[in-house]
Design a protein that fits this description.
Helices cover 34% and strands 19% of the residues. The protein contains nine helices and eight strands. The chain has an eight-stranded parallel sheet. The model has no long low-confidence stretch (mean pLDDT 97). Bound molecules: D-xylitol-5-phosphate (DX5) and zinc ion. Belongs to the ribulose-phosphate 3-epimerase family. It comes from Tribolium castaneum.
Length: 217
């Protein structure tokens, strides 16, 4: 299996200290940061946008930033996010009419392309776009909030992708922690987003290390 990377989601961190919290996650072993962007329209919640990401980038120069764009018009934020220093722009395909031109736009802006699927979106919806993407994100909760229950029934989507695309980066997001990461890794996911399981832990470093050990043993 591919080596797994652990990307903590900062959504449920103390956002008044976004930089401190983010740096701590990186110091504690995070491989990258998963930054959840919500517009109150595609999902029933608001979070952060490109001005905040840019401030974070000014303080954290080298870490890999992925933005998970839970927004109705992902085409609008490509340039602002690239300017803010985002490395990977992961957008949901559900609200997008022309996915391929948007993939091109993201790459032309200098970012990697992630394509995200809500739980209700079947794998057939993304097949035709996989060659234009660097990563596919299979949501394992309904996007919008941290701390929800992991949906194991999404694993066949991960399995299908891994079977057909052995070298593809496949990410899971939602309810992933020590009890659920094994299912994800066995299905073939190699990028693991984990929010509350890490953020709420007393010992973040130990939890990140255990997550890694669990999938590497
Ligand atoms: C949910 C977000 C997730 C969330 C994960 O809409 O996309 O990234 O913060 O949090 P947990 O791991 O607590 O489900
Ligand atoms: Zn997310």
């Amino acid at each position: 299996p591919l080596k797994c990377k652990i990307g903590p989601s900062i959504l449920n961190a103390d956002l008044s200290q976004l930089y401190v919290e983010s740096q701590r996650l990186l110091d504690n072993g995070a491989d990258y940061l998963h930054l959840d962007v919500m517009d109150g329209h595609f999902v029933p919640n608001l979070s952060i946008g490109h001005p905040v990401v840019k401030c974070l980038r000014n303080k954290i120069r080298t870490a890999f930033f992925e933005t998970h764009m839970m927004v109705s018009e992902p085409g609008k934020w490509v340039e602002p996010m690239a300017e803010a220093g985002v490395n990977q722009y992961t957008f949901h395909i559900e609200p997008v009419k022309d996915v391929i031109p948007l993939c091109r736009k993201v790459r032309e802006a200098g970012m990697q392309v992630g394509l995200a699927l809500k739980p209700g979106t079947g794998i057939e919806a993304v097949r035709q776009y996989i060659d234009h993407a660097d990563m596919i994100l299979i949501m394992t909760v309904e996007p919008g909030f941290g701390g929800q229950k992991f949906m194991g029934e999404m694993m066949p989507k991960v399995q299908w992708l891994r079977h057909n695309y052995p070298g593809l980066d496949i990410e899971v997001d939602g309810g992933v922690g020590l009890n659920t990461i094994t299912a994800c890794a066995e299905a073939g996911a190699n990028m693991i987003v984990s929010g509350t399981a890490i953020i709420n832990a007393n010992d973040q470093k130990a939890v990140i290390a255990s997550l890694r050990e669990t999938v590497e043993s």
